[in-house]
Amino acid sequence: MSLHIEQRESEGIVILDLKGPLTLGHGDSELRDTLRALHQSGKVNIVLNLKEVSHIDSTGLGTLVFGLAKLRKAGGRLALVNVDKSHLELFLLTKLALAFEFFDDEQEAINSFFPDRAVKPFDILSFIQHKDQRNSIRT
For residue 20, with 0-12 CB atoms within 10 Å meaning exposed, 13-18 middle and 19 or more buried, which class applies? Predict the structure, then answer.
């Protein structure tokens, strides 16, 4: 199974809905090519909807870092929305959670591109605390 990418736009912000694995040979090159094409066409503010991403490996993370760096260099931004808890753990373990912007819902991610709009930040600490509480219950 390969990664399927659907592109749409809201308020001038490109939203990419990803479906399937973001792994070596199964989505990394498709996403990299899509982000490169958007960048070349001047679209540098992008939201990635990861709700239906089934798996992310190190190559997939590398692709996300590539996109983030490319867009930032062009004066744009990359926001991640609907990140699965297991995928968020991967971002935390690799310390990449510090580099990316995470949002609970799509409208919050879109609002983050507009400085005059209030944005509710994604609370990684509540995720960590919830995880710690689960682990203490098991022991």
Answer: middle
The CA-based angle 50-79-104, given to 5 degrees, is 60
State which amino acid sits at residue 69: A
Domain that holds residue 71: 4-138
pTM of the predicted structure, to 2 decimals:
0.84
**Positions of E strands within the chain:** 4-10, 13-22, 45-56, 77-81, 101-103
Reported confidence tier of residue 60, pLDDT bands at 50, 70, 90: very high
CATH number of the domain bearing residue 87: 3.30.750.24
Q: In what order do the strands lie in the sheet with 45-56?
A: 4-10, 13-22, 45-56, 77-81, 101-103
